[in-house]
Amino acid sequence: xxxxxxxxxxxxxxSADPHAKLNLIVCEGxxxxxxxDLAAKAPDGFFSRAAILFCATGASGSTYQTKLxxxxxxxxxxxxxxxxxxxxxKGVLATATMGxxxxxxxxxxxxxxxxxxxxxxxxxxKSVFTEHRGSAxxxxxxxHCKGLTEDxxxxxxxxxxxxxxxxxxxxxxxxxxxxxxxxxxxxxxGEVPPVEELYP
Amino acid sequence: xxxxxxxxxxxxxxxxxxxPEAIRHFPFPFHEDKxxxxxxxxPHAPGPKGSAYEFPIDVDEHYVADMKDRAIVLAExxxxxxSLPHMITAEWDLVELLMTSMSxxxxxxxxxxxxxxxWHWINRPLGIDDExxxxxxxxxxxxxxxxxxxxxxxxxxxLDQRDGDLWMDSGMVTxxxxxxxxxxxxxxxxxxxxxxxxxxxxxxxxxxLKFLLAMQIGRPVRRLNWTMTINPRLDTSPENYHKWGTxxxxxxPENVGDKVHLRVELxxxxxxPRSNAIVFSIRGYLIKMREVATIPKWSxxxxxxxxxxxxxxxxYKGLTRYQQMTIDWLAKHDDGAPTTPGVWPx
Amino acid sequence: xxxPAEIRVRVTEAEAVTPAIKRLKLVPVTSNALPDFSGGxxxxxxxxxxxxxxxxPYSLMGSPFDSSAYQISVLRVPDSRGGSALIHDSVNEGTxxxxxxxxxxxxxxxxxxxxxxxxxxIGITPFMAMTAQLDREGADFQLHYAMRCRDTxxxxxVLQGLYGHRVHTYFDDSNQTLPLTRLLDGQPLGTHLYVCGxxxxxxxxxxxARHAGWPDENVxxxxxxxxxxxxxxxxxxxxxxxxxxxxxxxxxxxxxEAAGIEPQFLCRGGACGQCExxxxxxxxxxxxxxxxxxxxxxxxxxxxxxxxxxxxxxxxVLDL
Lengths: 200, 346, 320
Hints:
The structure holds three protein chains of three kinds.
Chain A: E1 22-28, H1 31-41, E2 50-55, H2 61-69, E3 75-79, H3 82-95, E4 100-106, H4 108-120, E5 129-132, E6 138-142, E7 148-152, E8 154-155, E9 157-158, E10 165-173, E11 178-183, E12 196-197
Helix pairs in contact in A: 1-2, 3-4
Chain B: H1 20-25, E1 42-43, H2 63-76, E2 81-83, H3 88-105, E3 110-115, E4 118-123, E5 128-133, H4 144-149, E6 155-162, E7 165-172, H5 181-184, E8 187-188, H6 189-192, H7 204-213, E9 221-230, H8 241-244, H9 256-259, E10 260-271, E11 278-288, H10 289-292, H11 296-307, H12 311-316, H13 323-331
Antiparallel strand pairs in B: 1-9, 2-7, 3-4, 4-5, 6-7, 6-11, 7-8, 9-10, 10-11
Chain C: E1 6-18, E2 21-28, E3 41-49, E4 52-59, E5 70-75, H1 83-90, E6 96-100, E7 103-104, E8 114-120, H2 125-136, E9 141-147, H3 156-163, E10 167-171, H4 180-184, E11 191-196, H5 199-211, E12 219-222, E13 233-237, E14 242-246, H6 252-258, E15 276-287, H7 295-300, E16 303-305, E17 310-318
Parallel strand pairs in C: 8-9, 8-11, 9-10, 11-12, 13-17
Antiparallel strand pairs in C: 1-2, 1-6, 2-5, 3-4, 3-6, 3-7, 13-14, 15-16, 15-17
């Protein structure tokens, strides 16, 4: 089963919406770099209408934090994990109004989580500006038990929930924010191909 | 005369088989001795009496067993039926389409009485007699799509039309060929077709999408797709692949005739009137190699199709492990004589 | 693929709603019911009276829950190619005309948390059916309807009667302007905006929405271009091996249909993309008048929308 990646979202990179009343910028780890690059080309006054929600993962977290803060956004929040960042995002979106532009930068699972929150409040995924930075690790949904396994870098791998050995199918669900994992040895149990580090 | 519904199974002891009438009813998909993926969309117009195309919604001798199998799947995995909230209008459109069509085609089995929004539906084979208010979900025992598709053979997807695209936002999918509704729900037309090899490169999906976006009310269309299945198993879902995958290794030269099934999907699409959504129905038909061989033209042709199938397609359809054994078995039923054009038996 | 299915209907009511707007009620000639439809759908009216001929799209404005009859409103356009004038002059109670099966190119986005409908003048018609449907489905909607004056504005009293405070009217002659900027401010996420009206109004709404930071995905519009008149030109049809002349007041599509060829179409207004035709050779200038092809596609000269676009030059060959 080899297939092209037509269901995989494209992440064309951040660009500034000059008209948004609120630029809600959500970034994680290396994704902060994308926001700094955006700052270099954004129009004057852009960050006075911006709120930055930074998930400070990875070694360079604190360096990025200082640099992001120096952009002087109207609001700046630093949160320690994807889960806490999403909780804060949910809270901000609950009272946000039309005229809000959402930006997401970071790893693919992180962007996936942001898009799920957007979907929940009626934001079309096409209107979210995204940029992939950092690790190529994937979030995988086991098609059998439906459990999500985070930080998958290799295929096949073991489902964290049901323990089946799964290969990673290049099929992506925006609703789940995850790729699909399918049992690799369903036809001949135990016949498992060598592990490849595909998504470092 | 009414249909005689058979008591048979699609799991465990696998007692499913086709009567001679059901074999002639089978929508054999190959109109020539080779196969390549194509759009092959045609009007869903009434076909010959006794064929799977006679009525818009086909009910056959497997009806009761199909519905029983669906109920088992749903009891084990309720996520096989899902609908995003904005699809409720389309769900009611589907109730209207299926009840109208089934009661008009098979009045001895199904009766629909409408008095404004007060509807009365009788489904004799399943012993259902319900009065409900059309448009009021609280008056049915299940949400509208689930209610009616628990009573109609085949899988159903409701496609929302927005922004020049179609979105798989609703579905009842319990007898699929290796795709997951739970995973694909919410995807656009090209996204959910992503795993299909070869077809994207030749622009098939661009053309098909443009065609479907322009679909009109009252002008349904259909196409056929096919694969092969080991054992007469309706639920060949990826969800349960780790349970049925070993079936593919159980084929031997001796059991090909009974174990290997050609599985044909009659895919029919309708524009739904009030939601402007499209219903995409995927009705699966199974036939054993031994049953295929009772129609000499079909066994000759299937033998030649399998021999010349591109390897990528064979892999995608999951045939690789038993393709050669099946070819060898069918070879005994192919005398090399030319076949006539078209799908109908000679 | 083929042209849409046609239905023969009889006019059972022909009412001058205002001096320039004629409402027609249409019932099927041979059956009891017309196809059900969805709010925002249109039909193409086909009517011939001697040498005069019309084939124009009109929004269905009746309730989608009444399949016994369709209702359309025809605005008499003074400098038109004569189609609307022909309907005003010679289509009356009892007249039989042909319409196409309904097509919806302006559908409701049911994901919306709130629907804001903005109409200008005759652009009210698709919203007549949409409001009926949104109301029945229990959706959160509001209608903002701008007209020149109380006398020439159609249906606003009916709509106020049906939907009360959800209908807001604005009359030019009373110096009332639609407060669009204020309206766009502070709406909940997931609100969708729909606009139908004169081209200038659509442009204004789209631009104002973008400047208010609304994503394009939340803004919907229906814009049918009328085929503009121009100079006579010839079209060679490569497949049918014929040459057709396109007169100053007809479109390529109409000229081809008059020659007995039935190409695919849905909107006849440059919006839906169905009549997209490959240009085999164009020695001259293609005059693209549609809203469908991208600027790059228009510049490439390889495609044209034959319902509204024209040609000026030495030779045009189409893949038809």
